[in-house]
Amino acid sequence: MTKKTEVSVETKLRALYDLQLIDSRIDEIKNLRGELPLEVEDLENEIQGLSLKLEKIKAEVSEDEHEISEKKLTIENAKELLKKYEEKLKNVRNNREYNSIVKEQEFQELEIQLAEKKIKEHTARIENKQIALNEVNERLEERNAHLKAKKGELDAILKETHKEEDILQKKSTEFEKQIEERLITAYKRIRASVKNGLAIVPVERGASGGSYFSIPAQVQLEIASRTKIIMDEHSGRILVDPDLAKEELEKIQKIIGG
Questions:
Q1: Sequence ranges of the domains in the chain
Q2: Edge-first strand listing for the sheet containing 200-204
Q3: Which of 61, 98, 154, 162 has the most CB atoms at less than 10 Å from its CB?
Q4: Distances (CA, A) of 189 to 28, 60, 66, 199, 246
Q5: pLDDT per residue over 30-77, tens digit each?
Q6: Is the pLDDT of residue 5 over 70?
Q7: Cα 256 to chain centroid, rounded
Q8: One-character DSSP codes across the chain
Q9: According to the CATH classification, is domain 36-163 in 1.10.287?
Q10: pLDDT-based confidence at 91, cuts 50/70/90?
């Protein structure tokens, strides 16, 4: 039976630090994009909202125009009836018939007045909506121009960094597979809990990288021995000695062409 080869702590530390270097570079690329992706998304959502508002106003204008057409037809029909009633008045035989025709004439005249009033109301609404349409159109043009500029900025950054980020993501996945799940879980947990995403840092001037808290000389010796995984008691980060960090940085720079 073949005995399974035990991976040394130093090998684990090197693999973890390699992963950290790769993930840190991915973080840098994402930071380079900054808020641009969110800005583009917000602009796209705003444009979609304005477009819906524009369509709604257009539909309302169309409805008003239809109402105006209907009222104009009502006026035409009423005028036609008035002409007929005028002819009928010439041939009335009694007061009762006369009064009946006059009442019909008055009704049609009221219909005309009411229709004309409605036409004025709908016309005024269309004029107000036209102002709103112009305002929304101007806003849309401005937002579309802004979106185009922001997309141009984002596309330029993506074009510049896409190839490198693709390589880095693949390498990150590769290095993850080389590290035991327990350490990967700890690594990701620490990365998520610190602002700069640094889960593994080298000792610099007697303190953990980016920290002002000194590390006791005995602990520094243990870190340099690379025989066990040591975490900084203040930041919770995993610590490596500066020589290992330098060696791995040079190695990763060659791998990713940095």
A1: 9-33+180-256, 36-163
A2: 207-208, 200-204, 238-240, 230-231
A3: 61
A4: 19, 55, 64, 8, 24
A5: 888 888 889 999 999 999 999 999 999 999 999 999 999 999 999 999
A6: no
A7: 31
A8: -PPPPPPPHHHHHHHHHHHHHHHHHHHHHHHHHTTHHHHHHHHHHHHHHHHHHHHHHHHHHHHHHHHHHHHHHHHHHHHHHHHHHHHHHTT--SHHHHHHHHHHHHHHHHHHHHHHHHHHHHHHHHHHHHHHHHHHHHHHHHHHHHHHHHHHHHHHHHHHHHHHHHHHHHHHHHHHHTS-HHHHHHHHHHHHHSTT--SEEEEETTEETT--SBPPHHHHHHHHHTSS-EE-TTT--EEE-HHHHHHHHHHHHHHHT-
A9: yes
A10: confident
For residue 178, CA distances in Å to 6, 21, 23, 163 come to 13, 15, 15, 23
Q: What distance in Å separates the CA atoms of residue 214 and residue 206, rounded to the nearest whole number? A: 6
Share of the chain above pLDDT 70, in %: 97
- Distance, in Å, from the CA atom of 226 to the CA atom of 138, rounded to the nearest integer, reads 65
pLDDT band at 258 (very low <50, low <70, confident <90, very high): low
